[in-house]
Design goal:
binds adenosine-3',5'-cyclic-monophosphate, Arc Repressor Mutant, subunit A, 2 domains, alpha+beta, four-stranded antiparallel beta sheet, 226 residues, 44% helix
Amino acid sequence: MSPESFIINIPLFHTLSPEDRKRLASSIRRQSIKKGETLFRKGSEGTTLYVIIQGKIKIALPSMLGDEVVLALFSDGDFFGEMALLDGMPRSADAIALEDSELYVLNQSDFVAFLNSNANAIQAILRSLSQRLRKTDDLLQDTCFLNVSGRFAKKLLELAEENGRKIGDEIEFDIALTQTDLAKMVGASRESINKELRTLREKGLVSVQGNTICIHNLTRLKRRIK
Ligand code: CMP
């Protein structure tokens, strides 16, 4: 697909006029990244905005001991890397590919030109920043006030809501995440998530087959959020 026709499908670029879309498409370049590769690290200089054509990118904060907490997972059509361009500071987090991914890359001057030529674009960026801050607020609240069982149940329900297929009273979703990834998303150890999953299976609340998780009882899973 040409950059121009792909751009139409990206919410951030929805409101562009055909001429602006053409201009943006001509300044955008493509980049591939393999599963497990790091696109950039927290603290590095940031001069580009990324839009995911296809794939999955994890945004994470590293600890001194080599652990990390996952702030966000981005997939097809999402953008990231805007913060360093907007405030001129270094990258605020690591960006790592969870799958082989294809990206569009926009440099800083083209991003600024895009914002300046389009008031709707500024609104779209502000809306995304608000939504991301809201999610991070939720993460902070959950980390402070919920135990691991509650945080994990909430994350499973969130993943089911975003990616799930309803089958009768049950809901099933595919995840390309390891238990370690899941643990990092809820600020817990892999061991405790492994234990949680085992408990949920024994109680008949969920079952796991390969990369597919099936939630058998939404009501009882919701009750664990406390
Ligand atoms: P930047 O700071 O340039 O590089 C890291 C990127 O991760 C950042 O821009 C945002 O695009 C994204 N990011 C940083 N913090 C969060 C967060 N709390 N929620 C979602 N995305 C984030």
